[in-house]
Amino acid sequence: MAISVLQERETSIGGSSASSIALAFSSSLTSGSSIHTAGGTLNTATSLSASGSRNGTYGTALDTINDTNGNAQYRAAHWRFDNSAAGSETVTVTPNTSASFLAICIREIGSTSGYDSAHNASNQTAPGTGTDALTSGNMTPSVQPGCVSAFSFDDWSGSGAPNAGTGFTAGLTGWALGGASTCLRTEFKRYIATTALPATFTAINGTEGHITLAALFKEASSGAMTGASALVVGETGTLTGAGALAGSSALTIGQTGSLKGTGVLAGASALQFGQTGALAATGALAGTSALLIGQTGALAGTGALAGTSALTIGETGSLAAPGALTGSAALTLGASATADLPSGAMVGSSALTLSASATLSAFGALIGNCQIIFDASGVVPSLQTTPTEVPAGRRIRNIYRVTIDGQVFECRTLQEALTLLDQAKQLAEKVAEDEAIWQIPRKPPVITVSSRELRKPAAQAKREIKATYDRAAVHAELRMLFELSRRQEEDDTLLLLM
């Protein structure tokens, strides 16, 4: 949640003398909030202090301004208190001696990690009524984001509270000081850069003196993420604790990220890596979480992706441990992938989609009811099948065998075999569309069948596939000739220019 002013109040007294002035917040404070307090008095008092009923002393004032000009001869100061305890709070401003025209203004700032070590104050005589002519002076944040919290008031005759500065959110007006009109204005502004900035106001009466007090506060960091929170990390990010990202949170890391703890990403969370990501622990991605890696990803731990989780890797991916993908999880690899180290890298009813080229080279790399889809070209070097046992007394039906480049497909019905031949033709069309693989000559697959009924359809499929490959080869040759012609023209142009 962004830093903001949660609540604020003000009060003041007129010409009667008092030893202090106190004011309670309207609502209970939120634990961890910061309090920004301003106070003032006639300068018959030489110092001011502030304290709270729950939080104790507010320490040394950030700034104290003593205006010896004009009619009032006024003194003002402001304080901050960080990491407030939750509950009710009454703030008291006390001069070192009883004084008149006492005033106090209190603000609770939420979603902050505290004061940012930058503050400023000014006393301007006759500032004029120009836009943003009233200024605290520059303050430089050490971090961003954060906020400016500021007070400004006419301390001579109280003829009108100034207006908030450009880009600031106006707060309350107050400090009537026993008169009919107010002289104080508060304001607030969230910033997202570490460049120096002032608090600014616009005076209503430009011929009178004004005091401005301001301080910077840091916005609290995200910390652990729960619920439906969203985290964006620009370049490199690491989640190292179990359950660091929980619920339906979303995490985006611009370049490189790592999940190092068991169950780091749990629930229905979503994780996106712009370039490189690694799942290094058992069960790092559990539940129904979704993980998207823009370029390169690795599953290095047993059961790294478990449950019904989904993993998408834009270009290259690796399954490096047995059982890295378990349950009914889904893995999509955009370009190339390798699962060549362990047996049983994928088990259960998982689904693997490889958009371009991939290799499964370990026996048993894909086990169970898994599915593997190759969008373009894929290699499965060894396919081992277990003979099907036939119960005693049952007749073995006809088996229609189709062999494609040495790989045997057994179909129970003629229609299944015909469908397989149609799929082979469709795959040939896709292969022909891939320009990159036609840099070297390609031979059509060798297709044989075991049944007389399949001979004619198989011959037709082989003719169509050969025609498809021939057209692709001609197109590849034409592309090569065009490229050679283009290069020759470029060479001729360079010779003319020499």
Can you characterise this structure?
- The protein is 13% helix and 36% strand.
- The longest helix is centred in the last third of the chain and has 46 residues.
- The chain starts with a strand and ends with a helix.
- The chain has 498 residues and is mainly β.
- The chain folds into 3 domains: 216 residues, no CATH class; 127 residues; 87 residues, no CATH class.
- The strands form 7 sheets. The protein has an 8-stranded parallel sheet with strand order 18-20-22-24-26-28-30-32, with no helix packed on it.
- The protein has 2 helices and 35 strands.
- Helix 1 packs parallel to helix 2.
Name the descriptors.
mainly beta; 3 domains; eight-stranded parallel sheet; seven-stranded parallel sheet; 2 helices; 36% strand; elongated
Q: Cα distance, first to last residue?
A: 65 Å
Low-confidence stretches: 223-231, 334-345, 354-358, 361-371, 373-396
Characterize the main sheet: 8 strands, parallel
Task: Report the total helices.
Answer: 2
Shape call: elongated
Give the quaternary arrangement of the chains: single chain
Structural class: mainly beta
Strand order of the largest sheet: 18-20-22-24-26-28-30-32
Q: How many domains, as an integer?
A: 3
